[in-house]
Each structure stands twice: as structure tokens, then as C-alpha cells.
Specification:
The structure is a single chain. By secondary structure, the protein is α/β, with parallel strands linked by helices. Helix content is about 45%, strand content about 10%. It has 19 helices and 14 strands. Strands 2-1-3-4-5 form a 5-stranded parallel β-sheet, sandwiched between helices. The longest helix has 30 residues.
């Protein structure tokens, strides 16, 4: 199984001592940093950088032919975007200060501990990645275009907020950091995860795990696998899903329901980039992109102590929050047409004609189940209709069952009583309040009296009498 290169552009190691170069390469390789370019002659550095992109440069200062401080100045001047980590046997403070003023990203004194070396290089990679993402995001926002719109073809939208999320997803595509996708149930978090995986161009598969209701033992065995004899009944070796996702992405859905013990293990996986199969003494490199999703408020779970704050901050390096359907109602006609067509095709029927009042009815519904609920409603209605014009009965029955006709009267959106008025305003009379309610209902229903009466909870006849009395 061939490992993918990390990072995508190589780490350039510059030192005139071959054994030091080999030692650095082994140390970084053991931490999953395997895209490395070695250079033992400082005279070749500028030529190498002109021909090859470099993610980070590790530079020795004490070398023949070109003084290290001069080479550092040349690199910073011509390639200021590349972080340079100086590694030298010179521990003089003046030299360190001079290098930092020149533009050095970090300064290490030989001999360098493995953990210090790895953490410094990983930090430089993260900072470089964030800079690249910010630049790409700016370019996409300014252009207003998507480089790969086909990747998002399964997400039906023309909403500006959603298109902005697509641009953001493209900008973080090549990052190795985890991606957190949040949003209410039914908004399409898994579709977004698939798009993020496709964008990152990793050769491995996307493996999905639902974390809800999984205890710690099952979580560990499912993700990490086990060796033969790891526990009673482990008669054969089991490959974990991380290994199956090798070179690809691991999507952990419902991450907010993960047990505390499993949260610790996931945190270690993210921090170290390696894991131990159950019963194993040697770790394996986790060559996967981690994507997680939840419909919970993770910050609230952190405050209540149900979710680790350190894990949350690791996961939200890149955060995509998908808005609920009631916040993107401009997509409703597009989604309705799509689901009418796909449902009719799946049932072997002709696409029915929808009454004009249907869009008005659905526009005033809060959709607690979001797009998934809309799809279910349309499938039910198309499956039961018998004439050319689609009946609204199934939609109205569904809405009544959910006890909400308008998003303005849902618990999420309806203001509290004490926020309707301020102390300085006179209280309207009942007649004035009733007139205002009727006017708003008629506005929201496009002057459809039957629908306005439903919103108000009165009969159409009574509404007609009230409208007549107002004239």
C-alpha cells in the first residue's frame, strides 16, 4: 500500500553533513512527513527553489561556499512565502536575533530533539497552509467563480451563502487539517463531506462511520482494528477503517455523540497522526483526512463538559456551517423541481403539475427536518397523487401533523411575549392587532384567503367577513 506524499510540496533540508540530513529525514518520516528533498550543497539551493515548490526549508547556517546568513537573506528576498527554519550549532543570542529579524520562521540549536524538530516543521506546514487557504479564498471571493462546480452537483442550490461555502471548501481542499461540518438534521452534511473529499484529490476512498451510540471498545476496534490474539475471540487480525481509508478520507458523522474515552483517542490520532491497533506494540501512520459532522452545538457541549475543548479546537481548524432550509428559502423552487423530477422518475410516473399555492404554503413552513423532510413530503405526495394537478392535501396533512404552519410561529423563530412591545409604545387595541395579523397573513399567503385563514387558525368564511368589514 503506497502512502500519499505529505505535504504536497516537499520539505527542503539543507546541510553539508550527509548523516544529519539522513537523521532529519528519518525523524520527519516517522511522523508522517515523507515528502522531503535533500540538499548538501548551498550553491544549489536557489536553483532548486526556482524549479521546485517547497513547503518549508530547514537550513543550516554553518556551511562551505556560501555563508548561511547570506543564503538566508537570498531565500527570504526571492521566496518570502516559504517558512525557513534555521538549524545551527551556533547558540549565540545575537545570531538568533539577527536571523529572526531577517525573516526566519523558527530557530533551533543542534542537537535538535526529534519532538522539537517534528513539532516545529508541522507548525510551519500549518501556518503555510492557512496562508495559502486565505489567498485562495480571497481569489475565489473576488472572482465569484468556482473552479470545480461539478463537485457540488449533488447539492441543489443557488443560494449565495451556500455558494460561499463551496468557495471556502475549494480553498481548504489541499489542507491536511480536519474539517468540521455542522448544521441541523437533514441539511446535507454528508453531501458536503463527499464534496470536500473529492476536492482534496486524495487517491484513497471516503470511509464513513456513524459515531452515535458506539461505545469506546467498538469505536477503537472499528477505527484502529486489532491484531490476532488481542483479546478473547480475536482469532484473526482485523483491519481498522483508518487503514481502509488509507490515502483517502475518514468521515465521522454525529461526532457530538462520541463517548469521552473515544474523544481522547480521536484527539491523540489528530495530534500524533498515528494509532495503535488493539494489542499492537508498534504504531501505524494514519494517512487520512479527517472530516467530522454533527447537528449538536459543540461549543455548548464543551461548556457543559460533555465534549473536550481541546478536541473541539482541533476539529474546527476548518468549519463549514450549512444553514437550515428556512434560512435559504430562495432555494425552495429549485429543490421542489428537482425532487418532483427525481421522484417521478423513480416511481415511473410523469412529473405532476404543482398548484401555484404550494410554493406559498411551503414558504411559510419552518421545515424542522430541512431538505430531507422536503424530499419525503414530495415523495409521499407524488406517490399518492392520481390526477395531473398535484393535490396539496398530503402537504397540509404533514404540516398539521408537525403542528406548525409558519416559521414565524415555530419555537425557533417566534419572539417572546415580552419582546413584542417596548415600554414607550402604546399597546394596540384588539381591533388594531387583529387588522395587523390579517394584513400580515394576506401578505405571506399572496392574498390567498384559504391559506391566510390557515395561518390565522380561523375559517375562510370568518376571514372573508373580517376583510369585508375592513373595507
Amino acid at each position: 500500500m503506497k502512502r500519499s506524499l505529505f505535504p504536497s510540496d516537499p520539505i527542503l533540508l539543507v546541510d553539508d553533513e550527509a548523516n544529519i540530513l539522513r537523521g532529519f529525514k528519518l525523524a520527519l518520516g516517522s511522523a508522517g512527513i515523507n515528502n522531503i528533498l535533500l540538499c548538501h550543497d548551498p550553491r544549489q539551493v536557489m536553483s532548486l527553489l526556482s524549479k521546485n515548490k517547497a513547503e518549508v526549508i530547514l537550513l543550516d547556517l554553518t556551511m562551505p561556499f556560501i555563508p548561511g546568513d547570506k543564503l538566508l537573506s537570498m531565500i527570504v528576498e526571492k521566496f518570502p512565502e516559504i517558512p525557513v527554519i534555521v538549524i545551527t550549532g551556533n547558540n549565540e543570542v545575537d545570531m538568533a536575533v539577527s536571523c529572526m529579524k531577517t525573516g526566519t520562521f523558527d530557530y533551533m540549536v543542534k542537537p535538535v530533539e526529534k519532538n522539537r524538530l517534528v513539532s516545529g516543521v508541522k507548525h510551519a506546514i500549518e501556518i503555510r497552509g492557512l496562508q495559502n487557504e486565505n489567498q485562495m479564498l480571497k481569489e475565489r471571493i473576488l472572482s465569484g467563480n468556482l473552479e470545480s462546480p461539478e463537485v457540488f452537483s449533488d447539492i441543489i442550490t443557488n443560494n449565495r451563502t451556500m455558494l460561499g461555502l463551496f468557495q471556502y471548501a475549494e480553498s481548504i481542499a489541499q489542507s491536511s487539517q480536519p474539517v468540521l461540518i455542522t448544521g441541523e438534521t437533514g441539511v446535507g452534511k454528508e453531501l458536503m463531506a463527499k464534496s470536500v473529499h473529492t476536492l482534496c484529490s486524495r487517491k484513497g476512498p471516503l470511509i464513513t462511520v456513524n459515531a452515535a451510540g458506539i461505545d469506546d471498545n467498538i469505536f477503537s476496534d472499528t477505527l484502529f482494528g486489532h491484531i490476532k490474539g488481542a483479546f478473547t475471540g480475536a482469532d484473526v487480525m482485523r483491519q481498522g477503517l483508518i487503514e481502509k481509508a488509507f490515502g483517502g478520507s475518514l468521515f465521522l458523522d454525529e461526532i457530538g455523540d462520541l463517548s469521552p474515552d473515544s474523544q481522547v483517542k480521536l484527539l491523540r490520532l489528530l495530534q500524533e497522526g498515528e494509532y495503535f491497533p488493539l494489542g499492537a506494540d508498534l504504531p501505524k501512520i494514519a494517512d487520512v483526512r479527517i472530516i467530522v459532522a454533527t447537528n449538536h452545538d459543540l461549543q455548548a457541549l464543551c461548556e457543559s463538559g460533555r465534549f473536550r475543548k481541546d478536541l473541539y479546537y482541533r476539529l474546527c481548524s476548518h468549519h463549514i456551517h450549512i444553514p437550515p432550509l428556512y434560512e435559504r428559502l430562495d432555494d425552495l423552487p429549485l429543490l421542489m423541481d428537482y425532487f418532483f423530477e427525481t421522484t417521478a422518475r423513480s416511481l415511473g410516473r410523469e412529473i405532476p403539475s404543482a398548484p401555484s399555492e404550494l410554493i406559498t404554503l411551503l414558504s411559510n413552513y419552518n421545515f424542522p427536518g430541512n431538505i430531507r423532510e422536503l424530499k419525503t413530503m414530495i415523495h409521499d405526495a407524488v406517490g399518492s397523487h392520481k390526477s395531473k394537478i398535484l393535490s396539496m392535501d398530503r402537504f397540509e396533512t404533514h404540516i398539521k401533523k408537525n403542528q406548525s404552519f409558519s416559521k414565524t410561529v415555530s419555537k425557533k423563530n417566534f419572539p417572546k411575549h415580552d419582546s413584542w412591545f417596548t415600554g414607550s409604545e402604546p399597546i394596540p387595541t384588539l381591533d388594531q392587532a387583529f387588522r395587523a395579523l390579517i394584513a400580515e397573513a394576506m401578505k405571506r399567503s399572496d392574498n390567498n384567503q384559504s391559506m391566510a385563514a390557515r395561518f390565522l387558525g380561523i375559517t375562510r368564511q370568518r376571514l372573508a367577513r373580517q376583510l369585508k368589514s375592513f373595507s
